[in-house]
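Session log. Operator J.P. requested a structure for one protein chain; no other inputs attached. Running the standard single-chain path with token output.
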Amino acid sequence: MLIVGLTGGIATGKSTASRAFQAQGVPVIDADVIAHQIMEPGEVSYKLVVKHFGVDILQEDTKAIDRAKLGGIIFNNPDKRQLLNKCTHPYVRRRIAYAVFKYYIQGYAMCVLDIPLLFESGLDKMCGKVAVISCTSERQLARLVSRNGFSREEAETRIKSQMPMGEKEKRATRVVGNDGSIEEMEDQIRRLVADWKPSVIRTVGALVAPVGLVVSLPFARTSMLGMGTLCACAAWIVGSIFG
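Structure written below.
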């Protein structure tokens, strides 16, 4: 199964691209959704965050974490942001890995990891290909002001706090432009899926290969055939992931 990383800048249209992938039958693992889930009361990350940031970040009625308050604490404080990452990132990664495995055993040819900080978190390393959703800086700024109600200065500060789009584009396998209509972007996603989606034979082979890998292990040391089968299955598994 090919793992595709999907990222972009704030307000460049990543959510629209994510829906376009789903419309093509490609499952999407949304890191933001997972990040919300692990911060629900009772979760390990929730307990760690409350322990390190105090009960003042909780909403009085529901005892849920007030994300606006927490965001205000970490936005201009790198140390606090790093502390929050230590409380959450390991648990986000674990759930992402579980979701990838679930789609793999269900026989999907590819899945998408929708992760805003894909490069910053290092999770691009587990992706065979990366799609970056991009638009002009002026369009990005206008969308952010309109969507979030920020002033121009607030929107510029938010954009500057992220990795520059130029750097993300350099590290992308393909850049999907989003300066036109939604239909134009959806057409780019359709072509991307057609170009990248592994064949049925490759997908089935990726499912069978782990079985061959396990079966060949006892014979790898005593038989050239066993060693050859082991290497072939391992290569097929790696190839199915990294395209």
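Operator note: Residues 212-217 have pLDDT under 50 and may be disordered.
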